[in-house]
Design brief:
Layout lengths: L1 E7 L2 E15 L4 E8 L1 E6 L2 E6 L2 E5 L5 E18 L1 H12 L2 H6 L15 E3 L2 H15 L5 H28 L6 H20 L7 H7 L4 H12 L3 H19 L4 H7 L5 H12 L3 H4 L1
Helix pairs in contact: 3-4, 4-5
Pfam families: HTH_18 (PF12833)
InterPro entries: Homeodomain-like_sf (IPR009057), HTH_AraC (IPR018060)
Keywords: DNA-binding, Transcription, Transcription regulation
């Protein structure tokens, strides 16, 4: 196991490569945790989640959690832990009026933001920024000014994702009361994370609705409103995304990948993959 921790003022970047590892982390900092290959099992309050390669999870400053890695293949991960004051100042600079920032920078009441904790795909600008940060640290560079720029960009990227995946989806729910919208989306996010964490298992609709503490019909209706697809369609998209990862990064034969991601029939998988991406799995590889 290799373990590297880099302090950036009161922020921290932790990189790890391991086959086996157990971490119990106390609350105190906001955290973005990502997996580059392999998987890690998380226990967050009463939630059991699996974070797979190509995804990241965001955790609030008051969230305690544990993480376990137990893998035949090496798991590479990175965690960016933000000091609350850094996030609060970022939020203040983002939301305060320009006149206030210029004339009375210390007069605005600053509050620690609370985010909907969820699993997101590591892609786009977030992936580009995180891979460059990892490369920079792998080279042994430690310019604090540049590192702080990376961390600020990380928050910029996260806020963009959060606006798309939480704020916009919350607004699309057909409820008049804002509190109701927030609560429904929170429950849907829990269900969504459960699907992502168990994408390779035979999970049923009733089980997912129970996780969300919603009736099956209510869950189906609101999930489609928020994510513009049914839970089954969402599960299929996650399985196909993971199939692309295995095709790119492993030498597993296609029929073995089909089994790993939870499909039952190789021919139907190949047909669905071709219809979704306009290439066969072999051509994609």
């Amino acid at each position: 196991m290799t373990f590297q921790s880099t302090l950036v003022d009161k922020n921290e970047v932790i990189m790890e490569s391991a086959y086996e590892a157990i971490h119990s982390t106390t609350a105190g900092k906001y955290a973005i945790q990502m997996i580059f290959n392999g998987a890690a099992a998380y226990t967050i309050a009463n939630r059991e989640l699996n974070l797979y390669a190509g995804n990241f999870i965001f955790l609030n400053q008051d969230t305690s959690y544990s993480r376990k890695i137990d893998s035949e293949r090496r798991v590479d991960s990175m965690s960016v832990r933000f000091d609350p004051d850094f996030v609060i100042d970022f939020e203040y600079a983002r939301t305060a009026k320009t006149e206030l920032l210029l004339d009375e920078p210390e007069s605005h009441q600053r509050k620690a933001p609370v985010f909907v904790e969820a699993i997101y795909p590591l892609q786009g600008d977030m992936k580009f920024n995180m891979l460059n940060l990892k490369k920079y640290l792998d080279q042994g560079s430690h310019d604090n000014l540049l590192l702080n720029t990376y961390l600020e960009r990380c928050l910029v990227n996260y806020y963009a994702i959060y606006n798309e995946e939480v704020i916009s989806r919350e607004a699309s729910l057909n409820f008049l009361n804002h509190t109701t919208k927030s609560e429904i989306l929170r429950r849907l996010s829990i269900a969504r994370d459960y699907i992502i964490s168990n994408y390779n298992k035979n999970i049923c609709l009733e089980e997912i609705a129970r996780i969300a503490c919603l009736s099956v019909n209510h869950f189906l209706r609101t999930f489609k409103q928020a994510y513009h697809q049914s839970p089954h369609q969402f599960l299929t998209s996650i399985r196909l995304r993971q199939a692309k990862y295995f095709l790119r990064n492993t030498d597993y034969p296609v029929n073995e990948i089909v089994d790993i991601i939870g499909f039952e029939c190789t021919s139907s998988f190949i047909r669905l993959f071709r219809n979704s991406f306009h290439v066969t799995p072999g051509q994609y590889r």
